[in-house]
Amino acid sequence: MSDKPRLRQLKAKALKDFLRGVQRPEVDLVFLLQDLEDPVNVGAAFRIADGCEASEIILTGKTPTPPDSTIAGVGRGAHRRIPWRYVEHADEALVELKGMGYMACAIEVAEGAVPYYSLKYPDRVCLVVGHEYHGVTTRTLSVCDNAVYIPMYGKIKSLNVHVALAVVAFHVLHQQLICG
């Protein structure tokens, strides 16, 4: 007799029942996307926001906005469920959020950045991601409270924007469960 658990894919009602049993941690997450070019990254950010139950996505600069067929397709329609708004300048949106008690945290390899898993995140966090090649601007970094990075051990020194956002967002969301 094996101690291995019985594993099988869950579908439909069984999947919904299984996921209902998971309590979402009490963390208020906002995503700010600065000057992204690729609507795939934007759509994926909406899908991640839906999975995290983020309270808002703020699109800034030249970031594509809905309605956009790529954003809708990649995000599986999450742009209709997650509140979003467009603000021209990221730093102005961050000043507003900080006034509401959010910590602004850039996901960026920058001077003073720390590994994403070493920072203690408060209950209100705005995660900031920047342009696919140029990252978060110096102007926006100057308004952020912190910057975190994901250590990379191979030859490629970064992840795709939406992948990095997912890694850090789910860590922030579950940090209290992991770290106590």
UniProtKB/TrEMBL annotation:
Domain tRNA/rRNA methyltransferase SpoU type, residue spans: 29-169
Keywords: Methyltransferase, Transferase
GO cellular component: cytosol
A single GO molecular function term of this UniProt record: RNA methyltransferase activity
GO BP term (any one): methylation
InterPro entries given in the database record: Alpha/beta_knot_MTases, rRNA_MeTrfase_TrmH, SpoU_MeTrfase, tRNA_m1G_MTases_N
One Pfam match: SpoU_methylase
Source species, domain of life: Bacteria
PANTHER family: 23S RRNA (GUANOSINE-2'-O-)-METHYLTRANSFERASE RLMB
Name of the protein in its database record: tRNA/rRNA methyltransferase (SpoU)
